[in-house]
Design brief:
2 copies of one chain form a homodimer. The first copy, chain A, is mainly alpha-helical. Chain A is 40% helix and 6% strand. The first copy, chain A, is elongated and about 70 Å long.
């Protein structure tokens, strides 16, 4: 969590954490803040106060609540959550058995980490690492690498708007347009575009649309 | 490794692995194949026989070999490696001190996992998890999730070619074209486009280019 800018640790039905014990021993610098500041809500409070995303490796076997499927993936979730206007909780199950069907059925969204079909079950620490890594741009924490941070959401939205205008200008069939826009939004969202990438693509689609629709006085 | 379709484990200067010991105990199903089949080359053999990618959390402090910088990130590396025509080894250092400058200087590429600026140092298991997760599409292993697999490289290349033609058709300045193509290639590469996404975008750029260059007989 601390590696990717997260800080709010919630534990449900967990054993006590001894500052001299194993969890503190493996926690690195998180022993200074995240572990001592953790809270212990119950599951009902969690479900009522947060937008909850449950993680499970094999969603097909848990498909009791069809409305919540198809599942999302961490990369797509990163983009989805930018439009969620509520506190978000990522919910991981028990190390041995994960979340059960009843628990998954009470959460808002189900997320699966793509992995090898013959062995997709990650341990808890690995699953959380990948989820937090993919969602890191949402915390606003700056990276140790200078080169790449996700563009402002407003600029990315402008890119989507310009893409839409381009579709209109090149005569992309009206009935396909919503689907095509969704496809583009997902692809770009997964890539976490930088400000420069976003501005460049916006400019290219603007130019592409202009050429497709020459002004009347030309 | 097994979770993401990898199988070839190389250990350098590592202690013996006891089938009753700790490493086997934590290895899950990898105790059946990856651990017993591991090999132990020396560092010189590794460097001479593989395209080597070293992982380090804080590349600025290791900048002794400027030609290998700027560093890459796992998502970008996934795209880069599709053009490497040699066996590839991902090289992780010691749990406590990582790879030293001399070692990094002898590798072909340096990769850093973007993380929080105030605490970017991951432990070895977390770093490997993220790297293998990002590179999973390169192994050809099918995922447990039906929905998304990366398009064939030839189709993605066709998309890049069509993007280039679009740039020409809308009169994108010649001197900027190589840079813009690189930008597009990186963004799309990071997103691991599906076959449908790739085909859709290729078609849109083709159409955009056609409108920009109406045939002479119209």
């Amino acid at each position: 969590m601390k590696n990717f800018g997260f800080s709010e640790l919630l534990l449900i039905d967990a054993p006590d954490l001894d500052p001299e014990g194993e969890a503190y021993g493996f926690a690195g610098q998180a022993r200074e803040d995240i572990l001592p500041n953790h809270r212990r809500p119950n599951f009902e409070t969690l479900v009522s106060e947060y937008y909850t995303v449950g993680f499970t490796a094999i969603p097909a076997e848990n498909a009791t609540a069809p409305v919540r499927y198809p599942v999302t993936t961490p990369a797509t979730l990163a983009d989805e959550l930018t439009t969620v206007n509520a506190p978000v909780a990522l919910v991981f199950g028990r190390e041995d058995t994960g979340l059960n069907n009843d628990e998954l059925g009470r959460l808002d969204r189900v997320c699966s980490i793509p992995a090898a079909n013959n062995y997709p079950v990650l341990n808890l620490g690995q699953a959380a690492t990948i989820a937090l890594y993919e969602l890191r741009d949402l915390t606003g924490a700056s990276s140790q690498l200078p080169e790449r941070t996700r563009a402002a959401e407003a600029d990315i939205e402008r890119l989507y708007g310009q893409f839409d205008a381009f579709l209109g200008a090149i005569g992309h069939p009206k009935e396909k347009r919503a689907k095509t826009k969704r496809l583009f939004r997902r692809l770009v969202g997964r890539a976490h575009p930088t400000a420069r990438e976003t501005a460049t693509l916006t400019g290219l689609f603007r130019r592409g649309a202009t050429f497709a629709e020459p002004p009347d006085d030309e």
